[in-house]
Design a protein that fits this description.
Blueprint: H1 4-21, E1 31-33, E2 39-46, H2 59-65, E3 69-72, H3 93-110, E4 111-119, H4 121-130, E5 137-141, H5 155-164, E6 169-171, E7 188-190, H6 191-202, E8 215-221, H7 229-237, E9 245-251, H8 270-282
Length: about 280
Amino acid sequence: MADDRVAQARAQLEAIAAEERADPKIAHYTRWWLGDGVAPTAVVLLHGVTNSPPQYDRFAPQLHARGHAVLVPRFPYHGFRDRMTTEIGRMRAADFTSTALRAVALAALCGRRVVVAGISVAGTLAGWLAARTRIDVAIAVAPYCGLRTVPGAANDAFGALLRAAPNAFLWWDPRNKQNQPPEHGYPRFATRVLGECLSISTAIADAPPGPHARRAVLVLNANEPAVNNAHAERRFRALREHGVELERVVLPGLPPIHDIVEPAIPQEQTELVYPPLIDLIEAE
């Protein structure tokens, strides 16, 4: 017989997915892998901006096979059938944070400890959660706290400029344009949304005293081509002021790609990424 808490979480997840399936615009829905009982660890996997829950369709079953409960929420305006949608331009920081907080609350029903892992802006969001919630561990993979080409201290001002300026839609890869993989992600991003994402980085240090994570782990690609690793390290050091232990892990041998967890791209090297992430998730 299923534990009442897990049954409650499952019912809420099914209601969320049913609402998503009822929207004809949405093709990729919230996902979860749960057992009948409360697992030792519940893992929340947060997908990147313009990506969607299938980003973790290879990784999540591996975690579940090891006995973990796994939740992969869909962020608003993501996962649409129309990969050229402009709806993503409506995304705001509050859409990210509210979705993540709801996922953490559901994960707390499914596991005795909660681990949150995210890539890019979702990595930054993991840091935001670490400063505000009682999750056990936050794992920030290649967090987007600033662009590599923008000096660290200028990224907050750059984010404010992007939020104030008219929205523009730019290709992630100007060579491939609409053919940019993966198929479950969008080939374009909205400039204002990048500014909204940077506001989450700014807010890591702004949390009031109160609940916080036990530990945060910053996971970086030694050959990161897009985000500012040094600025991310500076930003995440603020978590120590909230009482959060901070660990830094640099993954060697990866190609110069930003999305190191996505399996559906030609450059993927997930066999080098998933094992250390599993070790970090299971470390107590």
